Every structure is written in structure tokens, then in C-alpha cells.
Amino acid sequence: MSDTAIHVASVTKRFSGRVILDRIDLKVERGETLVILGGSGSGKSTLLRLMMGNIRPDEGDILVHPPGQEPPKSLRSLTPVELDDYRKSIGVLFQSGALFNSMTVADNVALPLREHTDLPDETIEIMVKIKLELVGLREHADKMPAMLSGGMKKRAGLARALSLDPRALFYDEPSAGLDPVTSAEIDQLIIDLNKQLGVTSVVVTHEMDSAFRIADRMVLLDRGKFIVSGTPDEMRNSTDPLVRQFVHGLTEGPLTDRRRGGAYEVDLLGSDI
Ligand SMILES: Nc1ncnc2c1ncn2[C@@H]1O[C@H](COP(=O)(O)OP(=O)(O)OP(=O)(O)O)[C@@H](O)[C@H]1O
């Protein structure tokens, strides 16, 4: 069996003719936690949506394993049923947790099971308890989302993402809007789930502390281009000016030079000075 869970092969994505991702090559290995880094608008969420099969590349290909299928198949070639099976085999945690406010926590977690399986209610009830226990929310099953703190909403969203026993989990900014302690708790949960369940995890984040805590490997995107991939140590010790500036949050470097739009003196006086 191949060790690669998802293979992004030379993918280009355009929106309204503008290149958003430019020939991206990336392999997500089974069981790893891969963190996608990059500035605002660099194309991180678009890459995530492509890997989830929500949008299609304009060029290139994305190879995945729909349940029970080996060797990998191109997302383009999947039948609607296979694509549906693939989508059911992945879990997604959005920034807000994306809970339905009119349902209890338990009903939110039960929803995918009710929609996509024929399991009897008693079995669903047990499965929901297991998922809520995994994220530390079993005591809060009957609460409405409005009664939960930000961190608890994320946990509930995660329990729902886990409801169909996904093989891969996708997280879009899991720490957004959380205080540092709650954010560290969510990171620990991501690490624990990855270890306990052996799921492949792909995480988009801006938070460097969080990225260094959870990543087995990191990739950096810049303006739709793939810049580098490496372990947290490799990224921390990189001598590439762009990686250094991004990873260490430096105020001077190629990112800020670019934003300033080139040297002011040259702009004023010409390039002969
Ligand atoms: N459906 C769409 N239609 C048109 N443009 C889009 C669409 N989705 C994304 N974009 C554009 O693509 C670019 C990359 O967006 P994306 O959300 O992937 O970036 P990101 O790195 O996740 O940014 P952020 O960190 O700010 O969330 C942005 O300029 C965005 O405006």
C-alpha cells in the first residue's frame, strides 16, 4: 500500500483568470500532520478545498484513495458516488466549528451519522458519546452551541468531523479567535487524535506557535507558489530569507520589501544613483 494519502501533482488553480495556485507539487503522507503556512491570500484555503475535492484544478491532478481503492485515483476521474465516498472519508473542522445553533451538541455530532448511515438510533447514540469523550465534551452533550465557549465549540466541531471515522482530517485555522491557553489545548487535542486514531491531518494556520507544536512537516506558500517544505527543525533553521522572515515573524525581509513596493530612493531618483 502506498504511503501517500494525497498527491497534489503540478496543480494550477485560477479564479477569474488570476493564478491563485501555480503548479503546486505536494505529497501528504499517511498518518502525518502537515501544516500549510503562508501569508494572507497565498492560496492555503484554496489548496485545502482542492484536496477535499470541493473545487477542481485547472491544470494538474490530485490523487487520492477513495475508501477501499488502491492504487490512488485522480479526483477528476471519480464517479459522483466515488467522490461522495471520498468526501465522507474525510473530516473537516472550519474556523467557527460550523455548528447548527438550533441543535444540541450531541445532535450536531449525530447529524452526519443520521445523514450518511442506516445505523439504528441506539448505535448512533453510543458513537456520539465516544466522539464526545474523545474531545472531552461528554458532559456537555445536551448543551446548545450558544452555551459553549470558543474552545468548546471547536471541540464540538471536531467531534462532528470525527463522526464518520475519517481517515483524513482537514483543519482551517483551528486556533483562530482562541486565547493562547485554549489554543494550546486544541493543538494538544489535534496531536492526541492524530496519535490515537492514526488519521492523516492537514492544517492551515497563521499561528506559528501552534504550527510548531503540531506539525510533522510544514510547507510554505507564497503568492500561490510552493516555496519550501520541511520538518519544524528544518524550517526553524532555514537560511532562506523568505522562510526566515515568515517563520520568525521578522519585520525586515523580502516580504516587507515587497509590500513597500521597492526602494523609495530608486523610485524618487531613478536607478542610476
Ligand atoms: N471562489 C473564489 N473566487 C475568486 N477568488 C477567490 C475565490 N476563493 C479565493 N479567491 C482568491 O484567491 C486568493 C487566495 O485565497 P485563499 O483563501 O486560498 O488564501 P489564504 O492563503 O487561505 O488566505 P487567508 O490566510 O487570508 O485565509 C485570494 O486572493 C482570494 O481572494
From TrEMBL:
<keyword id="KW-0067">ATP-binding</keyword>
<dbReference type="InterPro" id="IPR003593">
    <property type="entry name" value="AAA+_ATPase"/>
</dbReference>
<keyword id="KW-0547">Nucleotide-binding</keyword>
<dbReference type="InterPro" id="IPR027417">
    <property type="entry name" value="P-loop_NTPase"/>
</dbReference>
<keyword id="KW-0813">Transport</keyword>
<dbReference type="GO" id="GO:0005524">
    <property type="term" value="F:ATP binding"/>
</dbReference>
<protein>
    <submittedName>
        <fullName>ABC transporter ATP-binding protein</fullName>
    </submittedName>
</protein>
<dbReference type="Pfam" id="PF00005">
    <property type="entry name" value="ABC_tran"/>
</dbReference>
<feature type="domain" description="ABC transporter">
    <location>
        <begin position="6"/>
        <end position="248"/>
    </location>
</feature>
<dbReference type="InterPro" id="IPR017871">
    <property type="entry name" value="ABC_transporter-like_CS"/>
</dbReference>
<dbReference type="GO" id="GO:0016887">
    <property type="term" value="F:ATP hydrolysis activity"/>
</dbReference>
<dbReference type="InterPro" id="IPR003439">
    <property type="entry name" value="ABC_transporter-like_ATP-bd"/>
</dbReference>
